Amino acid sequence: xxxxxxxxxxxxxIATVSRYLNSPEHVREKTRLKVQEAIDKTGFSRNALARxxxxxxxSLVMVVLSAVGDPFFSGVMRGIWRVARREGYSILISETQFxxxxxxxxxxxxxxxxxxGIILLASISPFxxxxxxxxxxxxxxxxxxxxxxxxxxxxxxPELSHFPSVRVDNIGAAREAAGHLIDLxxxxxxxxxxxxxxxxxxxxxxxxxxxxxxxxxxxAEGWVQEGQLSIDGARRATRELLxxxxxxxxxxxxxxxxALGAMHxxxxxxxxxxxxxxxxxxxxxxxxxxxSPPLTTIAQPAEEIGEHTMERLCRAMRGDDIGAEPEVxxxxxxxxxSTAPPRE
Amino acid sequence: xxxxxxxxxxxxxIATVSRYLNSPEHVREKTRLKVQEAIDKTGFSRNALARxxxxxxxSLVMVVLSAVGDPFFSGVMRGIWRVARREGYSILISETQFxxxxxxxxxxxxxxxxxxGIILLASISPFxxxxxxxxxxxxxxxxxxxxxxxxxxxxxxPELSHFPSVRVDNIGAAREAAGHLIDLxxxxxxxxxxxxxxxxxxxxxxxxxxxxxxxxxxxAEGWVQEGQLSIDGARRATRELLxxxxxxxxxxxxxxxxALGAMHxxxxxxxxxxxxxxxxxxxxxxxxxxxSPPLTTIAQPAEEIGEHTMERLCRAMRGDDIGAEPEVxxxxxxxxxSTAPPRE
DNA sequence: TTGTAAGCGTTATCAC
DNA sequence: GTGATAACGCTTACAA
Lengths: 344, 344
Description:
The structure is a homodimer. In chain A, about 45% of the residues lie in helices and about 15% in strands. Chain A is built from 13 helices and twelve strands. In chain A, the strands form two sheets. A six-stranded parallel β-sheet of chain A has the order 2-1-3-4-5-11, sandwiched between helices. The N and C termini of chain A lie far apart (about 80 Å). Mean pLDDT of chain A is about 90; it is low at about 125-135.
């Protein structure tokens, strides 16, 4: 079932079979028929491993994300796909499952030629911690060039600032989210962040703090809680907030996922949203609109982020210099029913 | 940056470098040091393409799913990962994006040796429709053996019944879900299915119809609506149901995703859940519990499905005969607050 | 313990 | 248009 057997079967050389496979227009009609027949007969399937090896490329792009199952990625992937199809790339996805080694393993795939490029959607903080093979894979390269990597959504650390990225202005958007609550008249506004080392949410936290400062409002002790980017984490964080002496009248959650957790916990305490407490999220994942009440949030143009990220990667894989500037795409405040003026 | 340059740098043969890489214990301490030094100096990274090609295996397992962003996959992947780590496999994920070619492309990767095995979580109906390369990849094999494929979650078509699968008893579980509504006293119970060709939800529909029949209840015209497996599809389906003369007092949704859409639509009509209409879902994805009211549903043991699926695949890749019997894992009815006795 | 050398299945570069 | 044939980078007998 190798090209060789097909050649024998068809009574031609292996070169001809290869040509038939790669550029049939360079093969005479009559020969083409013979070869196709031989292929059908032998049930041949070209060994992609050998092919990729020989060609030195795979036409595969690896998308690294923290976990499939995050609804936000649906849109981003759709955008990536649209471009990938157009440009002739296949997409392979890998999960870090929130751990360090996860990423390193996949970063190496570009280096070891198993993929032509990488799109990083996962949180990138993990692999800054050690100096393992993977992190260095992103730093150095034998010939000093930068490997084809584009970072999507995430905020970029200084260490990785030589990689291009596509994302919203997290600080500005967070500022706008907090600003919306302030505009409604809230003064006691809490923030639920991700983990303490999450870059993404630390930018959003910065925006929150900036908005508070602009408005001359204090950020009281305990008003910033870690929600671990999870529903349960957000519930715990909310529990803390509700127990506070100066209980906030509004909570800004760094992700919609956590906002859903917060809402659940608030209801469990017999409080009303937005009557007793207003909630605003971030991402506009599809479950934000079906929440009860529907969640006010900051929408990221997920599909657009996916498209632009992939487009930029394609240029990098083609060998173009795409620079390292982050591309900022527009966010949008989506007003729904989970925010309202405070009661008093 | 090939093994050859490292060999030259270290003053040894390429065989020694290769040995160092694969079984360092067979290399003298002193030589080991020399080689390691040369590797560091050259910044060498072994070309996995060449390696896999030569070895004829990749230690890679491909997980095919319809689309990233489905919260239900989180748990399944966690289970798959646990086993993969233990058995020394890496996981690569691919999306069909709900189209046929998507699957074919990836199915071929096993055939073409880029992955050692496949786990199919995606709906498998698409690739039954044509006789393309991919579908045949799952059917025939040069030497007549069955390629290492295990199907997770999904119901298996007769055409694919020679492949092993791991899943819940969809019919039985659906019967229980509908039965729960019947036990509560509901008589007008509707069902929101996926697409008409979705195997998964057609089994659930069968369970629903069986339960109704058992109870001697009719399934009136219009009580079974297609929800396209999406929130919006479910909203449309619900709109149809609410407009019905004999408006149902309870709706069984074939997935939690659709249940959230249905709930949203019901609330938009100013109706109460479960006061006016009871809702029950299927899957117990993580947003089911945070819905308002929390969603009564059928829980699938996602993590367990992932584990068992991967375990079985590992045995298949090892060459063991794993048979083709579907393995049925237990489901569980999770009572929350979206179901209650009918008003009257 | 190390080196030599024969492949693995393709693609690509030549002649013809 | 087609056919030899030399790579590609690595693993693995087999020899030394």
